[in-house]
Design a protein that fits this description.
Blueprint: H1 2-45, E1 59-61, H2 68-79, H3 82-89, H4 91-109, E2 119-122, H5 128-135, E3 141-145, E4 153-155, E5 168-173, H6 182-192, E6 193-203, E7 215-217, H7 221-226, E8 230-240, E9 243-251
Parallel strand pairs: 2-3, 2-5, 3-4, 5-6
Antiparallel strand pairs: 1-7, 6-9, 8-9
Helix pairs in contact: 3-4, 4-5
Transmembrane segments: 24-45
Organism: Crotalaria pallida (Smooth rattlebox)
GO molecular function: S-adenosylmethionine-dependent methyltransferase activity
Length: 260
């Protein structure tokens, strides 16, 4: 009888110990999960590092960047240079705005740009292109750059534009050569352009760009291949502050689903 009673209490204690152990493990798991949630959300909703580059016969990625952070810092070294920023906001301001305005007026004549267009200038520095657009009547215009310059330029990385899909009617950039990941650069343009929207790039084909450039382009063919959801509108020669070629694309309309 005594032995049976002892065994009963032993099994009850054993079951209670197992239950307590399971509860302890469950509590530890839930506590660890709670502590990990901020890091999980940060990983899911933060821009992810880019791991692929595009190097072909007519598009060469320049070596020398050990990480994306190193690339960004090099670009910031130029954008934050106080001497350059002073030039951009004084001498260059008055020199470049009329030239940009001339380019944009020609695009309006070709019906590629309208006063009602919602426009984005990519890599706009202090916003000369944006100011030019506004002066010719395209008032809903803004620029993005790593360093903001309110009210014309907001902060943004052109590899990961801070805008929703199908936002803009028109996008312009003369900094394609600064893209370390050209496919990502183009992909973000096509993502944020509305269907039937227009993208215009000024690029250098006959000469190499400055020391801050991340790629060298030798023909328009790589651009045609990367703009998978757009049609080539025109290619023409321009004199754009060291850039010699204008390439325009129009994003294709989305197919209308067929009713069964």
């Amino acid at each position: 009888m005594l032995v049976a009673c002892c065994l009963k209490y032993f099994h009850a204690y054993k079951d209670m110990k197992i239950t307590l152990t399971k509860q302890f493990i469950l509590r530890c798991f839930l506590f660890s999960l709670f502590l990990s949630l901020p890091f999980i959300f940060l990983h899911l909703f933060s821009p992810q590092p880019f791991t692929t580059t595009t190097t072909t016969k007519d598009l060469r990625i320049r070596p020398g960047y050990s990480s994306y952070e190193k690339y960004i810092q090099r670009q910031l070294n130029k954008t934050l240079n106080p001497k350059l920023r002073k030039i951009w906001t004084t001498r260059d301001w008055n020199r470049k705005i009329p030239v940009f305005a001339h380019f944009f007026l020609e695009l309006k004549e070709k019906n590629l740009l309208h006063n009602t267009s919602k426009a984005l200038c990519i890599g706009a520095r202090v916003g000369q292109e944006v100011e030019a657009l506004r002066r010719i009547g395209v008032e809903d215009s803004v620029g993005i750059d790593l360093v903001p310059y309110p009210p014309l330029v907001v902060k943004g990385d052109f590899h990961n534009q801070p805008f929703e899909n199908d936002t803009f009617d028109f996008e312009f950039s003369n900094v394609f050569d600064h893209a370390l990941y050209p496919k990502r650069f183009v992909g973000e343009i096509e993502r944020t352009l509305k269907p039937n929207g227009v993208c215009v790039l000024h690029v250098a084909l006959s000469r190499r760009a400055d020391k801050y450039s991340a790629n060298d382009l030798y023909s328009v063919q790589p651009l045609v291949e990367m703009f998978k959801n757009s049609e080539l509108v025109h290619v023409r020669s321009v004199d754009g502050f060291g850039l010699d070629t204008e390439v325009a694309f129009r994003k294709k309309l989305k197919p209308i689903p067929q009713r069964l």
